[in-house]
Amino acid sequence: MSKPESSPKLRSVVKPTTVLLLFLLFSSFTHAQTAPPKFRTAPDPDWVLSDTPAPSTASRDGTITPWVRLLDDQQIRIRPDGLERYFRKREQAVSEKGVESVSTLYFPFDPAFQTLVVHHIRIIRGGQTLDVLRPGEITVESDDPDEYSLETTLKEARKDDIIDYAYTLRGSDPGQAGRFAETLRLGLYGSTDRVRRRVLWPGQQKLYWRTRNTSLTPSVRPLGTEVEYLWGSESPAPCACHAEAPPWFDPRPEVQLSDFATWQEVAELASSWYRVPMPLAPPLARRVEQWKKRLPTDEPRLLAAVRFVQDEIRDGGEQGMHPSSPTIVFEKREGSSRDRALLLCTLLRGLGIEAAPALVNSTARHVIEEYQPSLAAFDSVLVRVSLGNLSYWFDPSQTHQRGPLRQHANPPYARALLLQPGSRTLVEIPGPPVDSSSVFVKETYRASTYKEPVAFDVITTYRGIAADEMRRQLSWLKLEDYAKQKRDHYSDDSSTLAAEGEPQVSDDQEKNELVITERYHLSKFWRGRTVGFRAEQVAEKLAVSRGQSTGPLKLYYPLDFRQVIELHTPEPLRVAGAEGVLDDGALRLSYKISADPRVITLDCRLQSLRSFVDADQTPQHLKFREQLREKLSMQLTHSGDPLMLSYVIEYWPFVTLGVLLLIGLFLLLW
After folding, report:
1. Cα–Cα dist 593/604, whole Å
2. What is the average per-residue pLDDT within 150-178?
3. pLDDT score of 656
4. Is the separation of the CB atoms in 567 and 600 below 8 Å?
């Protein structure tokens, strides 16, 4: 970057001292914005166990895994002046491919509250130890100032090298409000020779812990004023998880640590942060009065407040457990899920509607019941509203939700910790009903003759949750981009598809019903003697990624997806009718093939009956899906191109060449 004082024009109109001052201010600002996070080097802290494990005697096959993890060591020390996390890893490349994986080292940390200390980086080769810690080659890996990760690449690494490195992160997350919570993995994805987890805890305080997916217990011993908890595992079984597993499924053994004994303690502390400020600040009071004057009853007032917070308050705000002032969030129109939850509770309280914030884990869902209570167990905040004798759960971070209150579907997070007086344990969030979402796709082909292009119309109707999701998608996806996606979906090699204008969108927000109409025409449709149809969009819902089937299988839920293909033909065509229902307790497919002289219909409807399939039932369920796919297509025989002339015309150079070759062969033989 050139310096300001080097510009003759600037020097002629601004005093040199002013230029220097501006330059210093600009330079300091730029440095503050772009300077990489600081780190330093130092030997291992004296409180850690830094013994080196004996070399593994297990055989290594580089064709199975290109690299192996020999040691994964994590040690934590909790002191009044802060928190220290020590990490040490030993990894070995057992093939040339594995060298790339083990030679790039990452040091992730949050510079907002953590400092990084790198202790050593070593290569063990042929019994010799090489010190390859070069601070000048440790650089910033991420451009995101909130998620820094330093990295370095060891260019001299070779096959069979052991990479040994260690570092410490110092600092406590202010979002935990001075409390402690940590999850220590006792098993990892992939093969690991040795896992060690160690905690040094102040002796005068109580530490609570709970294990999941393991019966491993720690060895406990006093060390001066501290207590040592040590978990160790030699060659733990590698963990595996199918790509289509539910979000809450995690087979890795772990121990969760916390200084909270019960969920009641968590609720009591967090409730103090979500007290609704009364009386309302003037800006909030004015908005509440507008709703009261304009809307006659509680239901439309409730929906007005929810829609305002969901759609008018953009995502942002400060990180941490404490929500911001509702007045500030209202005026800035920006806030986190915590901020929006408190703002919504405040507005509803002003409307005289009972509401309480509720902490949830959007990933763990019902499995959170297995967690050790802590603030860190939650990642989002909902609002439970009581109106009449009914309760409704709203996600203030969700957008573009519409429809009447009677059709509202709760978020699928299963469990919540209510922040209200008397809250002692997690409560259940009733899941969305099976009929709370539906998609109906009707594809109509109209042909009066075999020679003219076929008119092809697609009308897709989204209702409930599906309408919310499509409305949300259309809020950021340009209509022309959506149109291109649909053209690509319907195009194939056998016909030429052309759109007749852009898709038309009709959105009835009162009913929460969104309809998209697409119109096309198809040339080269009647080719050969047969034409096939398949409920492709239903088939897409049945697709499962390849991979090892380990654990439960997630299902689209709620799912009610119906695809109807209707063909109006130039002449009566015969088709074998079929009808039936297939159901394995997880998915249900209703299908029907029918013919009414010149109208042939393929009607397929797929419904999910629950949100996942148990692990022991997954193999059989995958076979059941294959049976369903067989019911999604039909084949028709027609007289539009009996001599296959369309193919002859399109591929005439190849046909001509083939004829000439046959003539030449005949003459040669003759």
Report:
1. 9
2. 91
3. 66
4. yes
Rounded Cα distance, 229 and 217, in Å: 9
- Are the C-beta atoms of 573 and 636 separated by less than 8 Å? yes
- pLDDT digits 0-9 by tens, 225-264: 999 999 987 766 666 667 789 999 998 899 999 999 999 9
Give the separation between CA 288 and CA 281, rounded to whole angstroms: 11
Q: Which fold has domain 267-431?
A: C8orf32 fold (3.10.620)
**Residues 291, 301: contact at Cβ < 8 Å?**
yes
Say what the pLDDT of residue 28 is: 41
d(CA 362, CA 381): 9
**Token pair recorded at residue 669:** 């033989």
Q: How does residue 576 score in pLDDT terms, banded at 50, 70 and 90?
A: confident
**Would you place residue 57 in the very low, low, confident or very high pLDDT band (cuts 50, 70, 90)?**
low
- Rounded-to-integer distance, Cα 119 and Cα 42, Å: 5
DSSP string, 128-194: EEEE---GGG-EE--S-TTS-EEEEE-TT--TT-EEEEEEEEE---GGGTT--EEEEESS-BS-BSE
> Would you say residue 648 has pLDDT above 70?
no
Rounded Cα–Cα distance for residues 18 and 623 (Å): 77
Model confidence over 629-640: pLDDT tens digits?
999 999 888 775
- Name the CATH topology of 41-53+61-260: Immunoglobulin-like (2.60.40)
Q: What ranges do the domains of the chain cover?
A: 4-34, 41-53+61-260, 267-431, 435-637
* Residue bearing tokens 């929906």: 303
Question: Whole-model pTM?
Answer: 0.85
Instruction: Give kind and range of the element (H or E) at residue 386.
Output: strand 380-387
**How far, in Å, are 129, 137, 590 from residue 105 at the CA level?**
18, 11, 53
Instruction: Measure the CA angle with vertex 294, ends 293 and 296; round to 5°.
Output: 80
Q: What's the CA dihedral at 415, 417, 418, 424 to 10 degrees?
A: 120
Instruction: For residues 568-572, give the mean pLDDT.
Output: 89
The CATH number of 435-637 is 2.60.120.1130
Residue 617: C-alpha distances to residues 614, 620, 622, 624 (Å): 5, 6, 9, 11
Any bridge partners for residue 232, and if so which? 196
Q: How far is CA 283 from CA 40, 120, 279, 351, in A?
A: 49, 56, 12, 14
As a whole number of angstroms, the distance between CA 453 and CA 500 comes to 13
- CA proximity to 201, closest of 220, 215, 175, 177: 220
pLDDT of residue 60: 59
The pLDDT value recorded for residue 643 is 43
What's at 536, amino acid-wise? E
Q: Is the pLDDT of residue 33 over 60?
A: no
- What is the average per-residue pLDDT within 475-494? 85
CB burial of 392-423 (b: ≥16 within 10 Å; e: otherwise) equals bbbbbbbbbbbbeeeebbbbbbbbbbbbeeeb
Count of CB atoms situated within 10 Å of the CB of 628: 20
